[in-house]
Each structure stands twice: as C-alpha cells, then as structure tokens.
Design a protein that fits this description.
Layout lengths: L1 E3 L1 E2 L27 H5 L10 E5 L2 E6 L5 E6 L5 H8 L5 E9 L4 E7 L5 H13 L3 E10 L2 E13 L4 H10 L3 E7 L2 E5 L8 H8 L5 E12 L1
Parallel strand pairs: 1-12
Antiparallel strand pairs: 2-6, 3-4, 5-7, 5-8, 6-7, 8-9, 9-11, 9-12, 10-11
Keywords: Signal
Pfam families: Fervidolysin_NPro-like
Organism: Pontibacter diazotrophicus
C-alpha cells in the first residue's frame, strides 16, 4: 500500500555547514556521536538489495536511497527539541516534510551529500539507538518517485483468524492497530520491533494464515 507525502510549508533552518563529496565515495563524517561508526561503512563494501512482495509477486527495491530517511519521535517533544536531537548528527542536513500515519507523525529528514548506501544504513542504526527517536527507516527510489518505509504494514488474513496475526505481531514486538476491512489489518512497528515495516512484511510473507503483507509505503516525487 502507498500513500502520498504532504510537504510542510516551511523547512527548518540548517544549523551546520557540511562538506560534500562524490556519491560513490565515503563521506567525511567527523561527529563524536555517530561519525566514527559511519566511517567504517566504506564504499567498497557490498550493498544490500532489498525486495518486498505485492501479493505473491516479489518486487525489487534495490539499495537504500542515500539522500533522505524517515524518522518519528517519542511523544511529548516540541518541534525545537526534535530539531536539536537531529542536529547532534552531522550526517543530518534538515527536516523537509512530514506525514501522519495511523500510529505516528513521520518526518522526512534530508542527509548530507556524499553518503553511500552502507553509510545510510549505519546512520539509520545510529538514529534508532536514540531514546528520543521511536522509528527510523529508509527511502527507496522507484522511477521518478521515492518510496518511504512507514511504520505500518497492511496485512490481509486468509481465514480472518486474528489470533494468528496477534501471535506473529507479538513475536516481532509489533502491534495490531485496527481493522481496515474484512480480514485486513494495520500493524505498527517501531524501534523496539525486530525490524522495520519492510522487514516485518517480508517476515509475514508465507506464514500460515497470512494471505498478503505489504509495507504501507509513503510516496513522494524525487
């Protein structure tokens, strides 16, 4: 399932200046909090190619997009506090847009130029460790659009047996939020889950009692 991203009227001020480098080379990350780990993700390392299932058909997503990621924050933070959290990471440039799902308000976060896909995956791991960030996930390029992995999976059951889905969600530290039709449910994941919505959808594929599971992608023009 896919949804369209809604731009925020005003972007936040860029607080740090960054030096860019070529896309195919490692970026000059020098931040005490996250930089040293990112430097380990060298451009020469093989990158992960991701896929997902739409029905029974497997579709390629390729490598993670290197310009943006999605994050959501824990409740109770002001916009200024959220921005201060992000500016601790030198690989973050600014927030640009946001979209509300059934479970959270997701922010599109622009990254500095020059990161490779391995570095973006490491950056997502660093963001997920932050106690103030409840979810962090990648974008993928799809033609002239970007697919952001939201914090939701849309699941259709074979026989309407919700107990099967509840048990699978429990094992994955996910939460069944609500029904959106006969036998179809929205399931939420976050940083406490075993993986993001893409990973959970792939985990559900082929499980007994599951007819279909897809990430609830957020679509935005590239």
């Amino acid at each position: 399932m896919k949804r369209t991203l809604i731009p925020v009227l005003a972007t936040l001020t860029l607080l740090f200046a960054f030096t860019s480098c070529r896309q195919d080379g490692p970026a000059p990350i020098r931040n005490i909090k996250a930089g040293p780990n990112l430097l380990k993700a060298q451009a020469g390392q093989s990158s992960t190619n991701y896929t997902y299932f739409t029905g029974q058909n497997q579709k390629a997503l390729g490598n993670v997009y290197t310009k943006d990621v999605l994050v959501s924050f824990v409740g109770g933070l002001t916009a200024d506090q959220e921005q201060r959290i992000l500016t601790q990471y030198v690989f973050v440039k600014k927030t640009t847009e946001q979209v509300a799902t059934d479970a959270a308000l997701l922010h599109r976060v622009a990254l500095v130029d020059g990161l490779n896909s391995n570095q973006v995956e490491q950056a997502l791991q660093e963001l997920a460790k932050d106690p103030n960030i409840s979810y962090a996930s990648p974008y993928f390029r799809d033609g002239n659009s970007l697919l952001g992995v939201s914090n939701q999976v849309i699941v259709t059951l074979e026989n309407g047996e919700t107990e099967v889905l509840q048990q699978l969600a429990k094992e994955y530290n996910a939460e069944v939020l609500k029904s959106i039709g006969e036998g179809t449910y929205v399931v939420k994941v976050d940083n406490a889950s075993k993986g993001n919505a893409l990973a959970f959808a792939n985990y559900l594929h082929g499980q007994k009692g599951i007819a279909q599971a897809e990430p609830d992608f957020i679509i935005t023009p590239d």
